[in-house]
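Table S2 (continued). Query chain:
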Amino acid sequence: MSLVQQIFLRKFSTTTSLNELRLLSRVKVVDNSKIGRNAKQSGRPVRIIHVYNKTHVGRLGDRVLVTIEHEKKKGYIVGCKQNQQPLIPKFDSNNIVLVDDNGQPLGTRIRTPIPSCLRSNTDPNFVKLLSLATTFV
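Corresponding output:
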């Protein structure tokens, strides 16, 4: 096999991508926290290292543990690229909002729209996140 064929085969894949957030999935921080801005400027991707639910598959509203700037931080999933149920929006990127260990948000504003279906979440820490959002879809 020639070198050109090897390079072409590396960039071309026939397998479908996973439509769910699992271990080592790349996510985008959408709040205005300082550590989130630093991660965006450095170019290192934020990755999920644990999902706090029984199936270990991340969905909207799930709490996750991410690695960001060589630190472990917790966050909530507020937008997914995966196929959703009817009337739930599908986003262009996987979005999270960072929180500290007590559940307090690290940022003061959420820059992207939040799905309105997340308003039914009764977790008190999640209600604090919803108060930071400016728009709902």
